[in-house]
């Protein structure tokens, strides 16, 4: 069966010293957590500190974004081979904040995910509808367009290494978590899209994380949904006790 993945997205928070402090508190709290994989995606400048602090533990480190060229004159970008060389396992692609504030499109999301895979990183590709899209009944249409444009261009072999994160934009950082049923339905729909494109066994194997105001007190209900295979956690991953409670749901 699918091993849950509990991933923390630190966004633009913490210094290297704070990163170190987090890990010294967090690691002892998750030593028994063999039921799940754990990942932390810190800001780029903290990756070295996080990799060092997580050494010998079961916690993998990831980038919050990744550029598709290997190197070159792309000021401000970080490539997949660079993340890999720095000790990363994971790379997030297409987070809604990247889509909203930095012009990310399904096309660039696909390029980032493919570049991550080429470098031996495992991409976490984010999809999710905005509030007005949900309210106008367009959730499935949006998810389908994001899947077709941002994921379905991957080969079957690439897809087998990819994690999908369903993050309704209206639930991110707002405290308004999707109900387990609402999230479960979206996950089921996404798994159906995966099945149409990649077949039954690939769809049964792909992990689909939920993200958007996941907290220690709502994670159990979400994880009880058959199609929810883990969480992508923003705010509640910044504090060791709260992220450990989520990991140990
Ligand atoms: P949140 O963020 O948990 O703070 O809502 C989730 C995310 O953006 O990945």
Strand content: 15-25%
According to CATH, the fold-level topology is TIM Barrel
What is the alpha-carbon Rg in Å? Answer: 17 Å
Any idea what the CATH architecture is? Alpha-Beta Barrel
Query: What structural category characterises the helix and strand content?
Result: alpha/beta
Q: What is the total domain count?
A: 1
Order of helices and strands: EHEHEHEHHEHHHEHHEHEH
Distance between the termini: 18 Å
CATH class: Alpha Beta
Ligand set: 2-phosphoglycolic acid
Overall mean pLDDT stands at: 97
Question: Level of helix content?
Answer: 40-55%
Could you give a short account of the major beta sheet?
8 strands, parallel, barrel
CATH superfamily: Aldolase class I
Number of strands: 8
> What shape does the CA trace take?
globular
Q: Please list the strands of the largest sheet in the order they lie side by side.
A: 1-2-3-4-5-6-7-8
